[in-house]
Every structure is written in structure tokens, then in C-alpha cells.
Amino acid sequence: MSEGNTMTDQTRHDEAQRGDQPPWGPPYGADGHVPPMPASAPHPGQPAGHYGGYGPPAGPYADAYGQPNYYGVSAAPKALSIASLCCGIASFLGFGFFLLPQLAAVVLGHLALNREPAGRGLAIAGLVLGYAAIAITVLVVVTLGVAFSNADFIAP
Question: Averaged over 58-73, what is the pLDDT?
Fold first, then answer.
């Protein structure tokens, strides 16, 4: 089989597929002429008059297809949980010398467990850090108290 026969077979196949269709013209804009826009078409940069002729969307909570939009739901509050976690972390960064961050982490953590079910993990983390910091602080205070009470360098 020669390549010339393949081309004629391809041409016959194309003509059989096309049937009564007219031959293809040049691609759009190939001759350098672009037809003008119809008078009813909106010009670039100007909004279309009326949503393509179908009317506005149905209600403020619907998308362009009239389906309800479920993305408008706000996130559950987690402020107490985040505050508890921040106070628990702050107590380990050296700010827990006066027991204020530890106590705040514990109080806020318990409040968050009761009021914010979405922030349960953060609240538990704040509680764990707060209770651990309280335990460490009490242990350090007791150790220092015992050490200073048995010290020989304290004058009577």
C-alpha cells in the first residue's frame, strides 16, 4: 500500500462522513475582518441588563442557579477555647510565675467545655496545660520552701 492510496482513502472517508455539509470556511478572524457585535449584545465592561433574561436569583441565600447557598453559615464560636489554650501555653513560657495564666487556662477551659462544643479539643488542651502548669508551679514552690527551710545560710 502506498501513501497516496492512504490519502485518497482518508479523503473518501471524510467526504462520506460530511455528507451534504458545505466545505469549511477560513477560521474566525483569519482574513483580518471581525464582524461587529449585534446591537442587543452588551458591550465589554458594561453589565448585562437582566441576568440573561431569566430574572434575579431567588432570595439572598440562593446562587445563580436558584439553589440554596449553604456557605452562609458562620463558624461556631471558639473564643473561650482559644483563650484557654493561649493561657496554658503562656504559663509555660515564663508568664506563670504568679499563677494567673494557669488559673485562667483552667477556668476558661471549663467554661469552654460547657459553652462551646465546637472548641472541645482546644478547651481540653488548655485544661491539660493549665493543670500541668499548676502542678509544676506547686511542686517548685514546695521544693523551694523545703530547700530554704533547711538551709544553713539563713541567719536567725
Answer: 62
Note if the pTM is more than 0.70: no
- Checking if the pLDDT of 2 tops 60, the result is no
Give the residue from 122, 138, 129 showing the smallest Cα distance to 101.
129
Give the whole-angstrom CA distance, residue 60 versus residue 117: 29
d(CA 126, CA 137): 16
Greater confidence (13 vs 75) lies with: 75
66-83 per-residue burial string, b: 16 or more CB within 10 A, e: under 16: eeeeeeeeeeeebebbbb
Three-class DSSP category at 121 = helix
Paired with 68 in beta bridges are 62
